[in-house]
């Protein structure tokens, strides 16, 4: 059975789990992980594979993986990639997606977090790049005055004015514009170094080079 993204978004179980995931991350003070983030990651992951000329079936699975990648936050922020992967497999097979495709999505979701994840497929690579590319101050939910006094992680998120991915031939570039009055370029690079390494490995899995551009300066 062909499952498309609209069917996933209309599913009552998916809606309930995503609402609880956002409620928990908000309560814990993490950045926004709502349907907004899910939608952006879904579209970006699909676009990456589409622009690289992958088959439409792979593009469709990347879109679904991107939409569901953070549902494990309804269980716990810790190990959310693994719990979310198992939830996604059960939901997708219930809806009617074939077991192999559901397993591909499970594998991608289980590997999207930089703590334990690694690019293991074209879908997981696109998901990693799309997830790490969504950096924007609107994702910070704490009061601004609290963020400015808080740790560097919060300030780095608040400083991000704009971010987007470009694919030019064999180069995948993440462009970020930050407000250096909130945090420095070096602060940003220090905090996100691990994530950028993961993005580099994901791009290489797709046969591309990775480039990080902050405020017009090429850092990677």
* Helix-and-strand structural type: alpha+beta
Q: Please name the CATH topology.
A: Hypothetical protein af1432
Tally of separate helices:
10
Q: Tell me about the largest β-sheet.
A: 4 strands, mixed
Strand content: 5-15%
Would you list the SSEs in sequence order as H and E?
Answer: HHHHHHHHHEEHEE
Rounded mean pLDDT score: 88
* Helical content (DSSP H or I, runs of 4+): 55-70%
CA-based shape? globular
Q: Low-confidence runs (pLDDT<50, min 5 residues)?
A: none
Order of adjacent strands in the largest pleated sheet = 1-2-3-4
Task: Please describe what this structure looks like.
The structure is a single chain. The chain has helices at 5-10, 12-28, 35-51, 56-68, 80-95, 99-110, 122-133, 144-149, 152-159, 185-205, and strands spanning 160-168, 171-178, 209-214, 217-218. It is of the alpha+beta class and 220 residues long. The chain has one domain (5-218): Hypothetical protein af1432. Strands 1-2-3-4 form a four-stranded mixed β-sheet. Helix 3 packs across helix 7 (122-133).
Write the layout of secondary structure elements.
Layout: H1 5-10, H2 12-28, H3 35-51, H4 56-68, H5 80-95, H6 99-110, H7 122-133, H8 144-149, H9 152-159, E1 160-168, E2 171-178, H10 185-205, E3 209-214, E4 217-218
Parallel strand pairs: 2-3
Antiparallel strand pairs: 1-2, 3-4
Helix pairs in contact: 3-4, 3-7, 4-6, 4-7, 5-6, 6-7, 7-10
């Amino acid at each position: 059975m062909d499952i498309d993204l609209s069917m996933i978004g209309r599913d009552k179980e998916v809606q309930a789990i995503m609402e609880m995931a956002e409620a928990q991350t908000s309560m814990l003070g993490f950045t926004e992980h709502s349907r907004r983030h899910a939608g952006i990651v879904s579209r970006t992951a699909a676009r990456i594979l589409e622009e690289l000329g992958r088959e439409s079936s792979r593009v469709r699975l990347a879109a679904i993986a991107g939409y569901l990648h953070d549902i494990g936050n309804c269980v716990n922020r810790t190990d959310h990639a693994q719990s979310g992967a198992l939830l996604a497999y059960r939901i997708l097979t219930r809806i009617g997606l074939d077991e192999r495709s559901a397993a591909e999505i499970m594998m991608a979701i289980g590997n999207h977090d930089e703590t334990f994840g690694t690019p293991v497929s074209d879908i997981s690579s696109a998901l990693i790049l799309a997830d790490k590319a969504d950096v924007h101050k609107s994702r910070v939910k704490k009061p601004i005055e609290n963020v400015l006094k808080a740790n560097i992680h919060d300030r780095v998120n608040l400083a991000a004015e704009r971010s987007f991915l470009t694919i030019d031939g064999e180069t995948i570039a993440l462009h970020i514009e930050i407000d250096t009055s909130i945090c420095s370029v070096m602060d940003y690079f220090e905090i996100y170094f691990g994530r950028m390494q993961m993005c580099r490995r994901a791009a290489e899995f797709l046969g591309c080079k990775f480039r990080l551009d902050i405020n017009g300066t090429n850092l990677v």
